[in-house]
Amino acid sequence: xxxxxxxxxxIFDPLHNFWxxxxxxxxxxxxxxxxxxxxLAAIELNRRQFFPPPLSASIPVTHYMAINLAFTLVLIMEVxxxxxxxxxxxxxxxxxxxxxxxxxxxxxxxxxxxxxxxxIEIAGHIDxxxxxxxxxxxxxxxFALLGVYAKMLRKAEDKHMSGINxxxxxxxxxxxxxxxLAIFLGMGVYNAGLMLSGIEDFAxxxxxxxxxxxxxxxxxxxSQCFQPGFRAVFRNSGYALATLLIRLxxxxxxxxxxxxxxxxxxxxxxxxxxxxxxxxSGRV
Length: 284
Fold this sequence. Notes:
The protein is mostly helical. It has one domain. Helix content is 78%, strand content 0%. The chain is globular, with a radius of gyration of 21 Å. The model is unreliable at 155-159 (pLDDT under 50).
């Protein structure tokens, strides 16, 4: 097993360091800006009938779609960061999931713009306004709860483990993270293929959150191998339930999705509060 753990660490750590490197983050941010500007230009040219019919049919005619594309790319970046967060701690990874959920709510609000005319006008579209306010309101509530959640998380991790056990535990989670990264890339390539073929995408983020549910259960089982105590298993299982609630929020209809998302955040916050108040002995 030591050879497997060392191999996983040898693969994961360079990838993690590369992704978190400031130069990488700046380069990716620059690419996002470029893609956003190119999308706006392509949409404008398409509105002026610059492209031939076969190509024109695959390019939107509303500039608001460029905003949706920008937020989608930002979400992809956040999902990659989430995957690299998995070996750190289950609680920190859950916080990253709520960050992504808040961004998804914001993205949904901006996506509502695509049904509005240009220049923007709300007359006759009051239902759109309510959905925009719902998504934005839910995002800000979760953002606020995340601030409280972050303050509650302790800086010390796994203090009660020996060095060998801690290394094996973290290495095990790195194996799971590498598996999730492979699944994420595979789903991304498949989804891109569908889009290029003119087929509607298969709700990428919704499906990936379904995979995260199984990932969290796997992490619970792995943590039980190193921390078999009831309180750690209960807390980690509770965090997995919070992930399930996030997944349900993504598929719920407007207004209910925000309600479920906020309930999930409150649940995670209360679970962390109870654990830190009565059962604190280190964090996984």
